[in-house]
Amino acid sequence: MENITEYQYAWALYLAGALGCTLAAWLLFRRLGRVVTHFFVITVMVILFTPYAIDADKMIMAPGMYTLVFGYFEGGFAAIKPLLKVMLGIWALAQVLSLIYQMLTRGSRAKHQEDYRPYQQNSYEDEEDYNYNQRRVERNSGRGLSREERIARDELLHEEPIRAIR
Length: 166
What we know:
This protein is mainly α and 166 residues long. The chain has helices at residues 2-29, 34-49, 64-75, 77-104, 108-115, 134-139, 147-157; strands spanning 51-55, 60-63. It has seven helices and two strands.
């Protein structure tokens, strides 16, 4: 019975490390866009989280990655072919589900961001007089400034710099 608890502790530590690697993959690729991030995170998760039965009678499982490496060293490509098929199938299914999810939620991010802009006002008077640009307001945060405060800030920030006379 003691051997089973060691087995469970080993799996718990492995799963914690694999979860950390998945988080690191997400942090590494999140700036590259949603599709690329999903692709790499799914790839890392399939490699790290796919278990494979070492002993089918006792249901002793090992990470598929270890079984791939050690199985290849022991028996060559023929020994790892079944596991490779399973991992490739899981990876392909996860990629398809991810693409379906991304297609279904494609426009929801922009709608969500527009709903939560409490400081941005949509109606302005004399916009042409103050060289108002909607894209510039979205890029530069208003931080709750009133219209007059925002105009004064823009005037101060867009002045020509003072040059020293030599």
